[in-house]
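Example complex used in Figure S2.
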Amino acid sequence: MPQALPEWLSPEDVGHLQRLMGSWGMLADLCFADLLLLVPTSEEDPSVFRIVGQMRPTTNPTLYREDMLGRTYEETDRPLVARSWQLGAIVEGEMQQVGAERARVQCIPVRHGGRMLAVLTRESAPTVGRRQGELEAVYVDTFDRFARMIVNGEFPFDTAEDSAAAEAPRVGDGVVLVDGRGRIEYASPNAVSALHRMGVHSNVAGARLDELGLEVTSTERALQTAMPVTEEVERRPDLIVVIRVIPLLEEGRPSGAVALMRDVTDLRRRDRLLISKDATIREVHHRVKNNLQTISSLLRLQGRRLGSDEGRTALQEAERRIRSIALVHEILSRDPGDQVAFGEIVRSLVHMAEDAAASFDRPVAIQVSGDPGEVPADVATPLAVVMAELLQNAVEHAFVDGSDPGAEARRVALDFANDGSELRVTVIDNGVGLPEGFDVARTTSLGLSLVRDLVTGQLQGEIGMAGTDGTRVSLRVPLPEPQKIG
Ligand SMILES: Nc1ncnc2c1ncn2[C@@H]1O[C@H](COP(=O)(O)OP(=O)(O)O)[C@@H](O)[C@H]1O
Ligand SMILES: [Mg+2]
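Predicted assembly (486 residues):
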């Protein structure tokens, strides 16, 4: 936000001006006027002033539709600013701007640590702020108190507190003005409504916020510490109000405070809804995982009872496929992003295949090289099913009696290369090789038909299989750009 600030300002000076600009939305609203912040381009020769900040009021139309940042003025263009700088005091007057109507201008020197840093101007059409009603009178009077604090170097406060937070209450949300003992001098209509919602129906004038049955300690703390305090007050059944209290100082001592209050119930309700949605999604993932586990153990139990070898094998295969899907599901649900690191899935699939090899009494250590990198979540599941089938085939069919090179020499190797737009995978074994005349495009056996259809259909990729001198399967899978949500 801040325009390049002149170099002569120290980092502390810059911090002070930035804090001022961080909280000056409130000031503009209180005085119903545009605020500009001007800094001389040179400290020794303060004859040219540059606009380094601009704030429009939300309580009144702006005087400046255009962006004023970066404009510079000679002393003679803006004599009031120059005079205010020279005197180190508030200067008021009128200004005729080329092509614009006359404007009322108040120039407020900005001091910090006894030094002058800038001039804050408050500019409005001449009719603005001519005390129309109580609210206007109180707001403008409050602004004047802030203006004196700015001149004295007492505002903004030297705290890192983030008053520009998105939910920080604004003047339009509701203003309560209290005196030096915390007694309410004025409450704006919106503040009265907020207090009503909090269950306060009596006339609030003269009372302290903590006497109204509200557990509000922020006014007291702000008056005691002479520092702004923000607190969130919760009222049953479900009302949440943020109160920000800014003490008004006179010669360093709080002579009162401004409390801005905002009903954030709807905001908080939305936050809570989001959190509970998250929890629901996690719960659903959990149930899906449990259900998949239940299905796979049902198949296992049923398979054990079957007399026919064929039936038993079929159920074992089905159980294995479900287990590999459950595994991918678990990994996907743990990290519910658009992209998933496929390496972790590969590690688990390799484990499963090694276990299967051991159960055939033909143990094999499967080697993995290259990095599969990240793949979109909807590529991960079909690809994992494909990998599981290929690994299973290698450990199941490659090393059959007669052409088994022996435990030490069995080799199954996986290799990955991911260039961001395409993933290449090879699965190689040094076993018996594929049957004579095998053609992956025409095979009708279940496992490889699944593999082929997933790769060429769902994944829009290519598959090649060569079966002399062991078996070599190569896949090319295009990786679509992750879909951006929102
Ligand atoms: N890595 C391999 N080494 C040797 N033969 C293989 C290999 N992969 C597949 N095969 C052969 O291809 C056939 C079809 O495989 P697949 O469709 O997975 O069915 P299944 O594994 O149920 O037999 C297998 O029965 C096997 O003869
Ligand atoms: Mg198979």
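The chain is about 40% helix and 25% strand. The two ends are 26 Å apart (CA to CA).
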